[in-house]
Amino acid sequence: MEKKLRSGYTTGTCAAAAAQAAVWRLCGGEVRSRAEILTRKGAVARLSTALLEETDSWVRFGVVKDAGDDPDVTDGALICVRAERAGSIPSPCWYASEDHPGIYIDGGEGVGRVTRPGLSCPVGKAAITPMPRGMIWEAAEQARRSLGYEAPILVTVEIPGGSELAERTFNGKLGILGGLSVLGTTGIVEPMSEAALIATIRLELHMKAVEGCTYPVITPGNYGEAFLRDQLGISLEQGVKCSNFVRETVTCMADEGFRRGLFAGHVGKLIKAAGGVENTHSRYGDRRMEILWDCVRQAVPETEEDGSLGQRILGANTTEEALGLLEERGIRRQTGDLAAALLQEQILQWTGGRLKLDIVMFSSELGIFGTAGNPEGRNWK
């Protein structure tokens, strides 16, 4: 029986718990070793809290994040909140709330700053998204009100080591510099890494649209990025890695208003999409050779009578091996151009005719396998 994956708590929930304990102590309460936070999913999170530092004017509490079975880079990280008495004039970098006057939120060590528009956080402020901000305000307000404290308070979220951890995330591409984002929508980390990847792809495409990009570049992963850079002279600085989520990505592109773009990738993945496979991960099936052989027969009809070629292609271990067979027959590029055209048509179908992508399929050993369209006037050879 498959093991049930264990849920955990978001960085935002951990920050809210640390904020509750820190504000409680700052306002005159005893040191608390546990905080209770109502998550947006309706469940009560009971998290252990620890007093880390204390002076006459500020206190600092920490919570060790437990992300459950989700492959989260912040699992086990210390999420800290420093609560201190604030001045009467708030900094423009702080978050303020009309619903919680006198309680301000900022990011400190290990929390990134937003440098580009398109996110749910203003440029120049800490990368603490709206839902975690709301939870932090509510936790801090609850503690302050319970003790009758009325003076302004600044709550600063800190993640020691966050700058290093951020290098393993997409933050740099999103324009979040210097650390991690404090995220969360429900307060609970569901062990669904696919959902997180799709959300990141959507956000990257949204930001490209906000920045005025009209010709985005997508590719499944590192192989495609290297080929674009080394062989075609195209940087993925303005591009997005779509991983296996081809239909999700192109649909999102169309929803964001994109009508043109470039899709470049290794034949091993793109040939699947050309045959209508929406998610190219192997666990959803592997029809690479069958789709490739169909393309061969359509591109070069006389090969249909060549049973040996069909058997060898269907029996090939890799698409590279199969393309070698096509190269021997002199029909590699004919087949590739047809496969690229089929993928272009498939994307038009998935997006209701809204998105026409130029296509470049490549082989690691043989170079370009096939193209469709004329990407920005380039002459693909």
Strand order of the largest sheet: 4-5-6-9-7
| Quantity of strands, as a count | 16
* Main sheet: strands, sense, barrel: 5 strands, mixed
In round numbers, the mean pLDDT is 89
Give the SSE order as H and E letters.
EHEEEEEEEHEHHEEHEHEHEHHHHHEE
The first-to-last residue Cα distance is: 52 Å
**Proportion of residues in helical segments:** 25-40%
Shape: elongated
Structural class: alpha/beta
Number of domains: 2
Would you mind describing this structure in some detail?
There is one protein chain. This protein has 381 residues and is α/β, with parallel strands linked by helices. It has two domains: 8-189, CbiD-like; 193-377, no CATH class. It has helices at 11-26, 130-146, 162-166, 171-174, 193-210, 222-230, 246-255, 267-274, 288-299, 307-314, 319-329, 332-350; strands spanning 8-9, 34-38, 44-48, 50-54, 58-64, 78-85, 103-107, 113-114, 153-158, 176-177, 188-189, 217-219, 239-241, 260-266, 356-363, 367-372. The strands form five sheets. Strands 4-5-6-9-7 form a five-stranded mixed beta sheet, with helices on one face. Strands 13-12-14-15-16 form a five-stranded mixed beta sheet. Strands 1-11 form a two-stranded antiparallel sheet. Helix 1 runs parallel beside helix 2 (130-146) and helix 8 crosses helix 12 (332-350). The longest helix has 19 residues, at 332-350. The two termini are 52 Å apart.
Précis, in short:
With 381 residues, the protein is an alpha/beta fold.
